[in-house]
Amino acid sequence: MPSTPRPRLARFADLAALSEAVAEETIALCRSRQAEGAVPCLVLTGGSGGAAVLAALAAHPELRTVDWRRVRLLWGDERWVPAGHPERNDRLADETLLAAVAHDPALVHRVPASDSGLDLDGAAAAYAELVDGLERIDLVLSGVGPDGHVASIFPGRDDLLSATASAIPVRDSPKPPPERVSLTLPALNRAERSWLLAAGAAKAEAVAGIVAPGPETLPAARLAGSAETTLWADEAALGAQ
Q1: Which residues, other chains included, contact 129 with Cβ-Cβ below 8 Å and sequence gap of 6+?
Q2: Band of the pLDDT at 1, cuts 50, 70, 90?
Q3: pTM for the complete prediction?
Q4: What's the pLDDT band for 6 if we cut at 50, 70, 90?
Q5: What is the DSSP string of 105-136?
Q6: 215 touches 207 (CB < 8 A)
Q7: 67-92: per-residue pLDDT in tens?
Q8: Of 51, 104, 123, 168, which sits most exposed with the smallest number of CB within 10 A?
Q9: Distance CA 12, CA 20 (A)
Q10: Confidence class of residue 15 from pLDDT cuts 50, 70 and 90?
Q11: What whole-number distance in Å separates Cα of residue 149 and Cα of residue 36?
Q12: DSSP string, 64-109
């Protein structure tokens, strides 16, 4: 497998400082793309890091310098539960960013829910078709799990790591709920910018595996944006790095 360039490291005291910086840079990116006449395309993440970034975005004083009606949003993965379920990743955005700004629901591309009328395979295929039709992905945000997983791509799972479709069904996730839809490494790596989020001592081992990959490369260490790859980490996650 070709080696993935090591990411740029952005170090912060804690999750609050990290999420505020990511929010500020996300707003700057969206403003820049809109100044070019483009519709920015962002892929959001769940987890504690994703939740903190969305909350920081919603509270940022420059939030409304972006026209959020002209921002396209997707998700890196989603739990296979009904629409509006508290475990869905899109609920994090609903309760923070999307509650704070005017937006175009047609540009908020949610993964089909378990009560959508599609089965899990159909939901993954529909999301893959959507992603395949995108001209450009400006930014992928990826929370890093303690085991080094990103989206619902878990270490040791060759079927997930080697998948080539843009989105796939996941039926036996080691984290509940077991059924999910996930973007794949090829889809995530279409992004111009790939930002990995890691905070807390529980992420220290995974961060070490990103900064200095071993023979068993973690999923998180395989992410690479075409223009930029940054690991945003706090002191607890960095440990001795």
Answers
A1: none
A2: very low
A3: 0.96
A4: confident
A5: GGGB-PPPPTTSS--HHHHHHHHHHHHHT-S-
A6: no
A7: 999 999 999 999 999 999 999 999 99
A8: 104
A9: 10
A10: very high
A11: 34
A12: GGS-GGG-EEEESEEESS-TT-TT-THHHHHTTHHHHS---GGGB-
User: How many CB atoms within 10 Å of residue 90?
Assistant: 23
- Number of other CB atoms surrounding residue 79 within 10 Å: 25
| Alpha-carbon separation of residue 173 from 77, 149, 154, 228 (angstroms) | 12, 11, 8, 29
40, amino acid identity: P
Q: Please give the C-alpha separations between residue 43 and each of 4, 5, 93, 189, in angstroms, as whole numbers.
A: 21, 21, 12, 11
- Per DSSP, what are the bridge partners of residue 108? 73
Q: Which residues are within 8 A (CB) of 176 and not within 5 positions of it... i.e. 6 or more apart?
A: none
pLDDT tens sequence across 183-233: 999 999 999 999 999 999 999 999 999 998 776 789 999 999 999 999 999
So where are the chain's domains? 28-238
Domain 28-238: top CATH class: alpha beta
Residues 6+ apart with CB under 8 A from 95: none
3-state SS class at 15? helix
